[in-house]
Every structure is written in structure tokens, then in C-alpha cells.
Amino acid sequence: MESTAHLRYIRIAPRKMRLVANLIRGKKLARARMILKFTPNKSTESLLKLIESAVASAQHNFGVEETQLYISKIIVNEGPKLKRIRPRARGKAFPIQKKTSHISVVLAEITLPSGADKEQRKKTEEASTIANAGAEGQESTAKKVKKIRGSGAKNVMNHGYREQAEKSKQVAKKIFRRKTG
């Protein structure tokens, strides 16, 4: 199921419109609305109205809930240019092109393949077991670090860093040997 909406001859340059359109391509509707709401561009108002129109047509024609829709395609094409002239010095005239845009939005329904619920459950279970194992591993490494620190290895570690710092200073002295006078 796909629902489309078109907005034509809008007086915003397609290059500027594409900047905002790229932000919401592939996003769910709620996320796209939030992005458009907080993006400070002139083109966000027209894109928001266009998305609302596409949602309304999807609900009317297919009876789909808003939460099940995402923006599958958003295409911004160049419309005709309004040609104007700006007067310049010595009777010359410079052309001005006021660009227009054509926008098409395609909303699609989010569908999970059959058996996806089982796969998602397995993935979440695996992730939780990995997280638990990782937490246990962190505790054991923390204990090891405490043991090492208690044994006086701290001085050895700092000494290694000091050696590296001294080497880098020596390299810098070799490179910047400037003799003045």
C-alpha cells in the first residue's frame, strides 16, 4: 500500500528544498514531523503540509493508521523558472531566475515479514544475554585493575607514558632546530 501526494510550482529553489527533504527520507511520520518542526527553513512548512495531505489520503483510501506509515520516497524536481530582469549601470540588464520546485511524497506502510516476531524476540534475547555477559566481564576486569593497582603497577604504567612524552619532545627538538643570531 502506497499513498502519494504532489506539490507543484512552489516558489522555493529545489536545492534548498532537497536539504530538508533528505533529512526526513525513510523516517517514520512522528520522527519526520519532529524534524520538520525544529528545522528553521522556509521549506519545512510546505513539506509538513504535503505530508499531512499524504497521510489524509492514506487514511481515507486505505484506512491505515498513522503509526504504521513511513516516508518511503520524497522527490524534489525543478519546476519552471520565473525570469526577471535587474537593471544595472549604463543601461544594462542582468537576468534573475526565480526557481520553483515540484515535490512528490510517497508514504508506505510498515510491514514485518512473516515470522519476524520470533526473529525479533531472538535478537532481543541475544542482546540481553550479551549485555549481561558484558556487565559480568566489566566487573571482573574492574577487579583485575584494582589488583594490579594495588601491586604497585601504577608507577610502571605512568613511567611508560613519561618515556613516550620524552621521546616526542626529542623528536620535536630534532625537527625545530633553529639557530638565530
UniProtKB/TrEMBL annotation:
Entry superkingdom: Bacteria
GO MF terms, alphabetically ordered: rRNA binding; structural constituent of ribosome
Biased composition (Basic residues): 170-181
Gene3D superfamilies: Ribosomal protein L22/L17 (3.90.470.10)
UniProt region (Disordered), positions on chain: 116-181
Keywords: Ribonucleoprotein, Ribosomal protein, RNA-binding, rRNA-binding
Coiled coil (residue ranges): none
Biological process annotations from GO: translation
GO cellular component, as recorded: cytosolic large ribosomal subunit
InterPro entries, A to Z: Ribosomal_uL22, Ribosomal_uL22_bac/chlpt-type, Ribosomal_uL22_bac/org-type, Ribosomal_uL22_CS, Ribosomal_uL22_sf
Compositionally skewed regions (Basic and acidic residues) per UniProt: 116-126, 160-169
Function field: The globular domain of the protein is located near the polypeptide exit tunnel on the outside of the subunit, while an extended beta-hairpin is found that lines the wall of the exit tunnel in the center of the 70S ribosome.
Assembly notes: Part of the 50S ribosomal subunit.
Family per record: Belongs to the universal ribosomal protein uL22 family.
Descriptive protein name: Large ribosomal subunit protein uL22
Species, as recorded: Candidatus Wildermuthbacteria bacterium RIFCSPHIGHO2_02_FULL_45_25
